[in-house]
Amino acid sequence: MMRNKLSKLFNAIGLFKHPSTSQSHGFASNVRNERSSMVTPEPCEQKAITPTAEQTYEEWLIDHPSALNSFEELMNTAKGKKIVMFLDYDGTLSPIVNDPELAFMSDAMRVALREVAGIFPTAIISGRSRDKVHGFVKLDEVYYAGSHGMDIMAPPRKHKAGDYNNYQPPVAVEKDNSVIFQPAQEFLPEIEKIYDELEKATKELKGVTVEHNRFCISVHYRRAEEKVHSDVKKVVKEVLKKHARFHATTGKMVWEVRPSIKWNKGNALEYLLDTLGLAESSDVLPIYIGDDRTDEDAFEVLQKRGQGFPILVSQNPKETKASHSLRDPSEVLTFLLRLAKWRKNSGL
Question: CB–CB of 125/162 below 8 Å?
Fold first, then answer.
């Protein structure tokens, strides 16, 4: 009975031809006979299976694991080390928004950042002007480096390595006496000219805004129609033809025009470590969190030093020198809160 039912099932789904013999030699023998009389399937086209975005991201995480999922492992490494925090602003402490003037940081992020800065030396290194970033963050407990590190507010005195154990965050009075380091001062007059030229050249390009960041110029086109994007590139290239000492780099829907000097976010990180008296320390552990292509310079510095954790903020897989990752600013917030809690609970 069972054999007949199976045979009917096989016939119904088109696997076998009807058996040609009526005599049975038992179930196994009958299956062998039926198997030998299988219909040869027609060849079918092989279709490539394209991995989903989530699958691709999960594969990327193998090499750049989540800093949240790896938190305990990271903190085991951090025990007994001198942690110094470095963070980008846009896309890290605040979400990327269409209007760069509205890139506000949440109150929750500000509270978390203040808490971390009260425990560890903390600096924000941004492509924005230093004053503008300070206006967004509104904290005196952190150091600021604007214009991709070309405008740095450093401690008023160079610290010694031993000062770390008695670290006190900067306060408003100390800020007034702080050292301002600006390696691109000589370029300021030409930067003003470039800003005026870009303003004039993009005036008719709807959705394009030019932002003056003191030592660099940002041309934003996130709000522009796609057909305008190539026009923006053309304008930037044409303006730069008249200014040989400058170059342009691309970011997230933005062109950045900067002086062509050997100075970037990685140099800013090293400069701040030096002023904190930790540049030569064997037990310093810098943590740099950023989302932009310009943050790769800082990631590379940490990679070469063999110290610290470069952490990329991204929801998409990309080439990076970062060792770990976080998806978005909400995960950055969680990481900062956990870091502050870990430090308090460790009793160090």
Answer: no
Backbone φ and ψ of 84, nearest 5°: -130, 130
Structural domains of the chain sorted by starting position, each given as residue range(s) with its CATH number in brackets? 53-183+263-346 (3.40.50.1000), 186-259 (3.30.70.1020)
pLDDT tens, per residue, the chain with 348 residues: 444 544 444 444 444 444 444 343 343 344 334 444 444 445 445 555 567 778 899 999 999 999 999 999 999 999 999 999 999 999 999 999 989 999 999 999 999 999 999 999 999 999 999 999 999 999 999 999 999 999 998 776 666 666 676 676 775 444 555 778 999 999 999 999 999 999 999 999 999 999 999 999 999 999 999 999 999 999 999 999 999 999 999 989 999 999 999 999 999 999 999 999 999 999 999 999 999 999 999 999 999 999 999 999 999 999 999 999 999 999 999 999 999 999 999 865
Determine the residue type at 270: E
The CA distance from 302 to 321, in Å, is 9
Structure-block tokens of residue 62: 């193998």
CA proximity to 74, closest of 286, 329, 298 = 286
Judged by DSSP in three states, 30 sits in helix
pTM (two decimals): 0.80
Q: Reduced to 3 DSSP states, what percent helix, strand and coil does the chain have, rounded to the nearest 5? A: 45, 15, 40
